[in-house]
Automatic annotation (TrEMBL):
SUPFAM superfamilies: NAD(P)-binding Rossmann-fold domains (SSF51735)
Domain NAD-dependent epimerase/dehydratase: 7-240
Organism, scientific name: Fonsecaea nubica
Protein name, entry field: NAD-dependent epimerase/dehydratase domain-containing protein
Gene Ontology molecular function terms on file: aldehyde dehydrogenase (NAD+) activity
GO cellular component, one term: cytoplasm
Length: 358
């Protein structure tokens, strides 16, 4: 029964997790027992109580501490975990999955683990196929991921994490889901971080070099999603899990869900953001976009705190990952079309500059 479920959300102070908590009270969900929000500090715990006291209870523990994870899951009888804090390694996820399996063994309740991955892990950066649309409903997607060879070890680790979550969960009788955000934009609704990652990288690099640079040959595109729509897919998936029955959402090797309203060319996004950056006096020459040279990539890397070869990882690449699962299985429909990120690029720039202290 769904009313037996206690739900844990990790990353409650983050951009995605905070927005999920904020929309929670406006969502019509089947009944459940409790909602716990994992935070890192007592200050954040106070913020959860203040902002969401009627909806969520804060909880503080270290996800990298196996004993702490096990105690939290078993003591609180947590049967659904939405994991939003680490896409790169599988350590903490493994602790949660093992604890969920133990809870299932003790109580017989169905247990569920959602891992938040990322579109990079289904892109050129990760050795994924980009010569055709890669559907999130592709029955061979798990095998495709298993065969991927990422040119960057950090990204290979993230690919392996997806696979490990699926394999470990399957072996222990835990339903697993791979939730995939892409370029997420728009003002976050949570009490903590209000801004995205990829769009911030474009602004940070442009601010340091006083120009926007493209980092790819050709005109590669990437999936995009407004933060509101990303949140409604999280909630649609949760709604399906809580409802249970024969129409339970696909899981395991059939449990990939991309939150996206469509694809946008990076060069279009660069140009749209550069126009407002020029109006704000952050870049020169009317917001002209140029192709990056090895020298400018070095400078961009310094601005972003990464080696030059990691710059394109933050604000470029080709991703043909295409959403079908959310709409076909859950009835999810994004409110904002892909073009919306270009139409509101000026607002995004203003939001980022405001949060960067300008």
């Amino acid at each position: 029964m769904s009313d037996l479920h206690t739900i844990l959300i990790t990353g409650a102070s983050g951009y995605l997790g905070g927005s999920l908590l904020a929309q929670w009270s406006r969502s019509s969900l089947p009944p459940y027992k409790r909602l716990l929000a994992l935070v890192r500090t007592e200050e954040q715990a106070s913020a959860v109580k203040r902002e969401y006291g009627a909806e969520a209870e804060p909880i503080v523990f270290d996800t990298k501490d196996e004993k702490a994870v096990r105690a939290a899951v078993l003591d609180n009888q947590i049967s659904i975990v939405f994991f939003l804090v680490d896409a790169m390694t599988a350590q903490a996820q493994g602790y949660f999955i093992s604890a969920l399996a133990e809870l299932k063994g003790r109580t017989g309740v169905d247990v569920h683990f959602l891992h938040t991955s990322g579109a990079k892990i289904f892109s050129s950066h990760a050795g994924a196929p980009t010569d055709r649309p890669l559907l999130d409903t592709d029955p061979d997607l798990y095998e495709i991921q298993k065969a991927q060879k990422a040119p960057i070890p950090l990204i290979q680790s993230a690919v392996n994490t997806n696979n490990t979550v699926i394999e470990q969960a399957e072996s222990l009788g835990v339903h697993s889901y791979i939730f995939v955000p892409c370029i997420v934009y728009g003002r976050g609704e949570g009490f903590g971080n209000r801004i995205s990652i990829q769009t911030v990288a474009i602004v940070k690099a442009a601010r340091a070099l006083r120009r926007v640079y493209s980092v790819d040959d050709g005109s590669p595109a990437w999936p995009v999603c407004h933060v509101h729509d990303n949140t409604t897919l999280y909630l649609a998936l949760l709604r399906g899990i809580l409802a249970g029955g024969t129409n339970r959402p696909g899981s395991g090797k059939n449990g990939y869900y991309l939150a996206s309203s469509g694809h946008v060319a990076w060069e279009s996004l660069y140009a749209a953001m550069a126009a407002r950056l020029a109006q704000r006096g952050v870049v020169d020459e009317g917001g002209k976009v140029e192709r990056a040279t090895p020298q400018t990539l070095e400078a961009m890397g310094k601005a972003l705190g990464c080696p030059a070869e990691f710059v394109a990882l933050q604000l470029g690449g080709r991703c043909t990952f295409t959403p079908r699962h959310g709409e076909e299985a859950l009835g999810w429909k994004p409110r904002y079309p892909a073009q919306h990120i270009l139409d509101t690029a000026g607002d995004e720039v203003d939001l980022i500059l405001e949060n960067l202290g300008e």
